[in-house]
Write a structure and sequence with these properties.
The strands form 2 sheets. A 3-stranded antiparallel β-sheet has the order 3-4-5, with no helix packed on it. It is of the alpha+beta class and 155 residues long. It is 31% helix and 12% strand. It is built from 4 helices and 5 strands. Strand 1 and strand 2 form a beta hairpin.
Amino acid sequence: MAGKRRRFKPYELFGRTVNLPEAVARVKGDPVSVPDTCRFCKGEVKLVNNADFYKGREYGWPLAYCCTSCGARVGCHPGTDIPLGTLADGPTMQARREAHDAFDRLWRGKTPWHRSQAYRALAKALGVRFAHISWMDVPECKRVVSLCQSGALFV
């Protein structure tokens, strides 16, 4: 939402209170814009319960945005209706999983990096100010995998 800050007001949906001030405060940085049109097929996007695509079972915070035409989707930050990233179709979800598999090894376990340091190094390697895998498309995710596998990321 360029230039305009969204005002978050608490409301009830699917038996839960959404956008309480403490939940909204946990979201760091500028929130991603709420999608209303699918970036893949231009279909309508709606806020749904994630049980709609997990065979009737909710996982984590249940709110997600989903395209009514092609099924591209993105989850929401816990307690809010703020998207975690951009809509992803099947190939994009798979590419993001692969990027996370490669990238998360850099900051989990045996390395001294913290997640935020790893993302700063990734942004620098990609030549952008900020980077997050949940914002990326398939080619960008493939580039992340390549950078991680080549050892090109440094703090």
